[in-house]
Write a structure and sequence with these properties.
five-stranded parallel sheet; 11 helices; 13% strand; single chain; alpha/beta
Length: 213
Amino acid sequence: MSKIKIALVDDHSLFTETLKNMLANEDDFIIVGTFTTASSFINFVEKQRVDVCLMDLGMPHLNGFQAVEQTKKYNAYIKFIALTMSSSAKSLNQAKSVGFDGYLIKNTSYNDLKTAIKRVSQGQKVYDLLPDDMKISSEESQENKIDFSVVTKREKEILGLILDSKTTEEIAAKLYISENTVKTHRKNIFRKLKIKNSAGLLHIAEEYDLWLR
């Protein structure tokens, strides 16, 4: 059986070198590259094959979420495992939404890490090796998740302008509609997003920053 080709992407070089040395001793794995930036990894996979990538999330310039989203467009066969310090349900759910195949906390056991690599290489999703409280929080967050598909294209335009601190008068002028129409759209946006005021809207903007970009 051919070895699993692994890439490590993390801006902490000491961590990647340590992990590289550990994984290199495994008969089933071969380390094809270590990278301290996501962009250097993306350039690498344009020419070289990678089966599984262990990707940190919080990197400067191009973070792990953005990197996976970009890479999956052209290299859908690559399996990604988030290897991160973040144990938040928000990060987990965002990782799932952009295409990560697994999610591990950096204090996970080495055996669990090896198991996860083998499982994602076989096409499995690996989210079951997380702390129980994190899995529960993620499930609760998914249950309360807002369905943005019910927000119309026009409402999204107006929402973006509201978040850009535009007044009702300015929005009406920019979109060539009446101020009453803007107020009606605002009312519908608040109803669909289950919020009551601008403070709630700012909270939604922060919580769903990926969607708002």
